Each structure stands twice: as C-alpha cells, then as structure tokens.
Amino acid sequence: MSFSRDDRGSAVLGGVPLASLFDSPEPWGAPAELTTPAYVYDLDAMTAEARALDAGFGDAPRLIAFAVKANSAGPIVRAFAACGLGAEAVSAGECQLALACGVAPERLLMSGVGKSRRDLDAAIGAGEQGIFAIQLESVEEIPAVAARARALGRTARVSIRVNPSVEAATHAHIATGHDEAKFGVALVDLPAAWDAIAREPTLSLAGIGAHIGSQLTRTDEYLRGARTLLDLAAERERAGTPLRFVDFGGGYGIDYGAGCDVRPADFARAAAQLVAQSPLAGRTIVVEPGRALVAAHGVLCATTIIAKRSRSTPERRWLLIDAGMNDLLRPALYAARHRIESLEPAPAGDPSTWRVAGPVCESSDDFGDHLFAGVPARVAIRDSGAYGYTMASQYNGRALPAEVFLSGGRVMAVHMPRRAESWADERARIGR
After folding, report:
1. Catalytic residue among 101, 260, 301, 361
2. How far is the C-alpha of 229 from the C-alpha of 366, rounded, in Å?
3. pTM of the prediction?
4. What is the DSSP letter of 275?
5. CB–CB of 248/299 below 8 Å?
6. Which H or E run includes 225?
7. pLDDT of residue 177
8. Which of 223, 258, 262, 424 is the most exposed place for a label (fewest CB within 10 A)?
9. Is residue 423 within 8 Å of 399, Cβ to Cβ?
10. Mode of pairing for the β-strands spanning 156-163 and 185-186
C-alpha cells in the first residue's frame, strides 16, 4: 500500500507528507495555489501494481488493457503505456485519449452497449488497421459496425462480449454478467451473432470475451465465467473459426478496509492455468483491470469546514468537509465506504465518532461514520484512485477537484481545473 504514516504520525503517500502539499508545497514541486479538495496519486505504486499483475501470467501470451474509465488522467495512462499495457475504451473520447498517451492501436479495445457512429469511426479508423478489437454487445449492432467499416474502406476486427449468466458476489450496480444485465450477448442469442458476423465481409472475428462485474473479492465466479468462454471458443474452433484471443474482463477487487484475500495476480495465475489446460492453450489472454491498478494508490484530500454538534440525546457529531459527492460519487451511488483519516498526527486521547459529510445540498452527500481523536484540520479519503475524478461533476456550481501526480518522492504534474467563477460565467453567457 502506498498510503502510510511517518514516524511523527503524518499521512504519507508516495513518500510525500500529504499535509505539506498544502502547507509548504514548493519543496515538493507543487504550486503555491494548490488547495483542497484535491486528488493525489502515487504513479510509482500504480506501475508496480501493473507489473505484479503482469508477472502473474507467467509465460502466457496476454494483453493487459487498462480500463480508462477507472482513471483517465494522462500521466496515469502514459505510465501504464510505458509499462507495456494496452487500454480498454468505452467511447471515442477514451479511444483518442489512449492513443494520444502512447497506446498503440493494436493494443486498444473498445467496449460499450451503445456505441455511436463517432465511437465506431474512432476505433475502426485508428492507425493503419484499426484497433485490436471492437467488442460486440448485441446482435443488433453487428450490421452497424459492418456499415461503418464499409464506409471507411476497412475491415474491422471484432469480438463478442458474451453474457455468461454468472451472478457475481458484488454490489447490484456493478454486477454485469447476470441474465438481467444490459451488457453482452445472451447465450441464447449467440448462434445468431456468429451467423450475422459470418455474413459481413467487412468484419473479422478475432475473439470472445465476458465481464461479470467489478470489485470481485474471490476467483470462483470469475473462473466460472472463464470456463464458459473457453467452452464457447472451443466450439468455434471445431466449427472451423479459430479465435486469436479470449477476454476474461477485469473487475479485480481491492481492500477498502474490510479485507480482500485475493490479489490481481491471483486472478492472472488462475486464468493462465485454465487456458493452458484447455484446447485454447497458447492463445492470447486479454484482461481489462481498472480499479485494481489505481484505486489504492490515490486519495482525495479535503479540509474541514466546520465541526457541527447536535445537543440531542445521544449527541451527534458532523464533520463537514470541502469535498462532496460531486468530487467522489461512489458513496452516494454504490453506498461505498472509504476509510477517512486525518492528514496530521492524531492528538492524544480517545477517539470519537464523527459523521463525515460534504457541502453538497443532498442527503446522500455522506461519507459515513469515522473515528477521530479531536477534530482533524484536513483528511484523506483513502482508496479513491478509481472512479473518483472520472465521475466528478460541477453540481451545485462547484469547481472540479485538483489532481496531483507523485513520482520519485515529489510532484511531477498538477491539474488545476477552472474555478467555480469560470463555471458561473459560462452558464450565465448561455443565450446572450
């Protein structure tokens, strides 16, 4: 874990005391105007996470495609590309971002249940031969992809994302492999999908994939979905249509504080062993990790605005901070719980329970109960490196949070979005 505490008890990320980024930022390479709320990321820990996952595959051919939706910051995507990772995009914007950050077209996939013409053109038109594969998620989109390939004068490499009818043990909002999910081609519709692809000369079938959900904390369901894929791929082989790859998706979980016994490399080893023992031995394994590579190595730093006490019985304590659900949506969207800790050393004394909440005018702007000894001046919301900034908004007219990127024990880049005043001017100009 890259989050720790130094000998004085101060919170540290990537070798940098977090409070110092705001108290005395210049020695660390941060701008003097840096304020909270701000995401801080440890790039070195993220790339180490990627290398550990890669090592888990042993000698198996693989493509690790980072799910850009988890964190679309350029320094992070570039760091992964430099490590040899590819990318998985779900829009033209993410596709263009990955290419601009050094991901080669042949190491880029595109997913999505409702790809627009712009999305398809970005994927098919990339590089000299298009991207690695477009993942088809319905029978109905097959002619649409074929039409765009024909219009661009190209052959599009495609794979089918199957819905393997696997119920993952995770939150309902991030379970994607069950029968009621909007994602993927249902098993009953698969014969029609094979036939539709075969009828399209501008499509080249390259693989088959699945993604059963996110925040998986055991390998059981993951491997059940993988076995289904391998059986289906073997059927295609017997029918005379060899496939270049099988895509087992991502969804590897992390420890948000309640424990997580398996690591991403455990999924990699299990998948590689399964493929090696199957008729598909030697084929490329594709995986699409997002959260597992970045979540634990990013924090959202916030400043306490006010400590509010109710004189009710029992007494209630609210710690109101300057980061809200517009900065980190996961608690409101998924009832996700993040550990929250003081940036400064804790004072002596027994801790008390405080309900941490943000300033947004919604009851769901609530980060839950946390223990603090005294009232912290600033806090770190831990494990926020995934689905934080990418889901952020300017709701309530609030500015987007800053982003700070650490490497080698200092700041290597800072992103300072426009202030709320710029938002106000822009909205006021509409119709003038």
Report:
1. 361
2. 40
3. 0.94
4. H
5. no
6. helix 220-238
7. 42
8. 258
9. yes
10. parallel
Specify the fold of 43-293: TIM Barrel (3.20.20)
| Distance separating alpha carbons of residues 257 and 381, to the nearest angstrom | 12
pLDDT tens-digit readout, 334-372: 889 999 999 999 888 899 999 999 999 999 999 999 999
pLDDT of residue 211: 82
Retrieve residue 47's tokens: 């790339």
Query: Cα(168)–Cα(176) distance, rounded to whole angstroms?
Result: 8
Is the model's pLDDT at 128 over the cut of 90?
yes
Residue 178 has what pLDDT?
Answer: 45
Q: How many CB atoms are located within 10 Å of the residue 21 CB?
A: 26
Q: Where in the chain is the domain with CATH 3.20.20.10?
A: 43-293
Average model confidence (pLDDT) for the chain?
92
The token duo for 280 is 């598909």
Q: Do 37 and 9 meet the contact criterion of CB atoms below 8 Å apart?
A: no
The CATH homologous superfamily for domain 3-42+296-429 is Lyase, Ornithine Decarboxylase; Chain A, domain 1 (2.40.37.10)
Q: Cα 123 to the chain's mean position, in Å?
A: 20
Task: Indicate the burial class of 9 (C-beta count within 10 angstroms; 0-12, 13-18, 19 or more).
Answer: exposed
Residues near 240 by beta carbon (within 8 Å), at least 6 away in sequence: none
In the chain, pLDDT over 90 holds for what percent of residues?
75
Return the H-helix or E-strand segment holding 354: strand 352-357
Phi, psi of 380 (to 5 degrees): -115, 125
227 conformational bin, left if phi > 0, alpha if psi -120 to 50, beta if neither: alpha
320 is written with which tokens?
Answer: 């109101």
303-to-2, 16, 28, 327, 357 alpha-carbon distances in Å: 21, 18, 20, 13, 12
Q: Which residues pair with 54 in a beta bridge?
A: none
DSSP bridge pairs for 320: 306, 357
Report pLDDT digits (tens) over 50-85: 999 999 999 999 999 999 999 999 999 999 999 999
pLDDT band at residue 138 using 50, 70 and 90 as cut-offs: very high
Confidence (pLDDT) at 174: 39
CATH 2.40.37.10, the chain: domain bounds: 3-42+296-429
> Residue 361 catalytic?
yes
Determine phi and psi for 333, rounding to 5 degrees.
-80, -40
